[in-house]
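re the bet — no i am not wrong, look at it urself. input seq straight from the record:
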Amino acid sequence: MIRIGIVGIGSIAEEYISILSDGSIKGARISALASRNEDRVKGLMDQYGLEDVQYYATLDEMLEDNQIDGVLITTPNFLHKDMAKKVIEHKKHCIVDKPLGITTLQVDELVSLANQNKDLTLAVMFNCRSNPIFKKVKNLVDLGDL
């Protein structure tokens, strides 16, 4: 079971929280949420029944938690590169909601850093992959019905 920490608690994060909390992604569970907006985090924890999830005010605090295997970054785009770099430097898997970086130089730097840490995964999440409509269409394609 991979233990995921999510940083950033906007609408995209809520979509991922919904998917991870209902068991749609086998072998993964939410272990922590990080945001400056504690009230919003507590509300989401109540809404999705996340009573065993740890709250952190910052990514830095969350990265010190040895119970976190990987971090999903759902913050504003301009923060992605620096946050992803911190996650990798703390030897944790890193999933970034698109885009990975603002420039190709930022992306190249992150890919290079990830390549130096072969035991870690750096990935970009394209949120439409988890959209129920897209999942249905993919299923139809897989079945050969479309």
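see?? The first strand starts at residue 2 and ends at 7. told u. also Residues 4 and 81 are 18 Å apart (CA to CA). so pay up
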